[in-house]
Every structure is written in C-alpha cells, then in structure tokens.
Amino acid sequence: MDLRQLEFLLTVADEANFTRAAAKLRVAQPGVSARIRQLEQELGHDLLDRSGRTVRLTAAGATVLPYARAAMAAVAGARLAVDELTGLLRGRLSMGMVAPYSTTEFDLADLLASFHRAHPAVRITLSEGTADALVESLQTGRLDVAVIGLGAKRPAGLACHVLVDEPLAAVVRADHPMAAAAAIPFAELRERTLLTFSRGTGLRSVLDAASARAGAPLNVAFEASDPGVLVQLVARGLGVGILPESAARALPKLRSVPIVRPRLRGQLAFAWRSEAPSSPAVRAFLQFACDMRPALDSVTEMRSRRQGS
Q1: Do the Cβ atoms of 188 and 218 come closer than 8 Å?
Q2: Is residue 21 within 8 Å of 27, Cβ to Cβ?
Q3: HSE, side-chain direction, 13 A CA sphere, residue 27
Q4: How many other CB atoms sit within 10 Å of the CB of residue 70?
Q5: Which residues form the HTH lysR-type domain (predicted)?
Q6: Taking a C-beta distance cutoff of 8 angstroms, is the pair 100, 131 a contact?
Q7: Do domains 3-64 and 89-309 have the same CATH topology?
Q8: What is the pLDDT of residues 202-211, one digit of tens each?
Q9: DSSP H helix total and E strand total for the chain
Q10: Which of 67, 83, 173, 235 is exposed most, by the fewest CB atoms within 10 A?
Q11: Contact indicator for 40, 80 with CB cutoff of 8 Å
Q12: SS3 172
C-alpha cells in the first residue's frame, strides 16, 4: 500500500467518476484504475462499486476511506510542520459557502482577499452548496471550513463561529395590509401564503422548528434558495416572505414586519470539524477570520434571554 494509491482512491470517491478523477489527478484513466485495483487486491476486497453510472464506495471502501484521509492528512501535516519551522505558511484551504451566498453584513470575498495577501502560498478553493450538503462535506473531511446558515440545532461534531445574527421578519409590499403592523404573532402566519427558503437551508430549519413547536402548519407556496428570487416574488405580490430582516432593504417598496411569539433569528457562521486535527493553514485561517469577525454567540445568548419567547 502506498500514498499514491490512497490519493487515487480518495479522488475517485470524491468525484464519483474515474474520468473526472483522472483529469483532476492529471493521470491517464487506466493508470488510476490499475493503482486502485492493486490496492483492492492487497486488501482482499473491492473498494469501489463500478456497476452504475457513478462510482460508489462499497462497504469495505467506506471503512477504508477515513483511514486514507487520515494518512494523507498526516503526510501533509508533516510537510507543513517543517514549513512552519522556517516561517513559511503554505498548504491548502478547502472552503464551502451556502448557495447563494448573500448578505450585506459580512464580506467573504474581502476576508479571503485579506488572508491571501497575508499568506499568498496557501491555495484556497471555494465551492457552493446547501447547508445540509456543506455540513456533510465538513463531517466527512471533504471541506476544511464552510460558511453555513445555522438551523435550530448546531450540527454534530462541528465547531461554529457566528458571523451574522439578525431577526427573521415577514416581508411584504408597502401596499400590503400587513405593512403598517407593528408586529405579527407567528401563529397568525398560518393564514398567509408564504414564500421562504428551500428545505436544507439553515433559515428554513429555524422556521420549520418554530412551526412544529407551535403546532401551526404553515402554507409555504413558494420556495427558493436565492433570497433575491424570493424578494422579487414578494415585490410582485405573490405572498408574504419569511426572510432576514435586511432583505426588505433590497427594494424600496418592501416592508419588514417583526415576527413575535416567538421571535425568530437567522445566523450565518463559520463551521469546521471540532475534534479533527487541522493543518497549519486551516488553523491560521480560522484565527485570522475570528480576529476579523469576533464571535456573536455571547451576544445572541444575551439577546435570547432578554427577549424570551
């Protein structure tokens, strides 16, 4: 067994395709297949199921995968540790972000640019996904860190650093009967046609959890992952948007009405594996990001105690 075999196995597992994996590795596809076959013969089990259109791990492959990741991470860590002794920080940072990423409260591009200027030898990759998909990628080690929307519960095995914390509101057109209301109780939303985020997003999880607690099923007629799409639908009078309060600022003809009993909040956070060893590059980025954006957790907890339900 050698590191190149493990690298090939990891890449095929991540890409779910030999052709894409070979292109990523810059190796001919037969070479990738041959090295993985050698590994399977050595272990005495098939690691990949090649029978479908996509390549999947077998039960044996799923068992081997975390060990393969740990071995590759250990080698990378050894190299980076030597670099640290010479004062050079380099390596790789694999980041995910909720799709689409949209907030006026936090500028991810500015943060990444500032970190790159400070550590130009660190290679950064960025990908998009839903909160659920990003959490899974963090837990399985495909991502080092991600910007996710937090739901009603913190994801298992992950540490979180809250970046943005703002109320959810009922967003309506300025000529809507609700526009002049000081607030609307959550239970009254069941009588409205609602527009909100798709399932799998942190904010939708907050809304669904509140609905379950209140025993008040909601009439969600329109779902979208893009807040800009939802804002446009609200502006055309298709219903009441359940969105971050700042979304009402997108168009001057929209108004936000606070939701009370309970007051709901949406949070955007950095997340990473809480117990897995991280590379010097990942540790440096997290320290850099947290220094630039102090955590809002204590602020959130104090606000929750003060507001209650």
Answers
A1: no
A2: no
A3: 18
A4: 14
A5: 1-58
A6: no
A7: no
A8: 788 888 888 8
A9: 10, 12
A10: 67
A11: no
A12: strand
Name the amino acid, one letter, at 216. A
State the Cα–Cα distance between residues 16 and 19, nearest whole angstrom.
Answer: 9
* 3-state secondary structure at position 244: strand
Distance CA 170, CA 101 (A): 21
Nearest one of 268, 32, 232 to 151, comparing CA atoms: 268
d(CA 30, CA 13): 16
Q: How far is residue 116's CA from residue 185's CA, in Å, rounded to a whole number?
A: 46
Structure tokens at 125: 């990759």
3-class DSSP string for 54-110 = CCEECHHHHHHHHHHHHHHHHHHHHHHHHHHHCCCCCEEEEEEEECCCCCCCCCHHH
DSSP 250: G
CATH number belonging to domain 89-309:
3.40.190.290
Alpha-carbon span 247 to 185, nearest angstrom: 20
Contacts of 229 (CB under 8 A, 6+ apart): none
Instruction: Place 83 in a pLDDT band, splitting at 50, 70 and 90.
Output: low
**pLDDT digit string, tens, across residues 153-193:** 788 888 888 888 888 889 988 888 888 888 988 888 888 88
Q: Pick from 233, 251, 301, 297: which is nearest to 271 by CA?
A: 297
Length of the chain: 309
Domain boundaries, the chain: 3-64, 89-309
Nearest to 102 by CA among 201, 186, 209, 30: 201
Task: Using the structure block, give the residue that is written with the tokens 């009402």.
Answer: 248
> Which residue, chain included where needed, has tokens 């030999």?
18
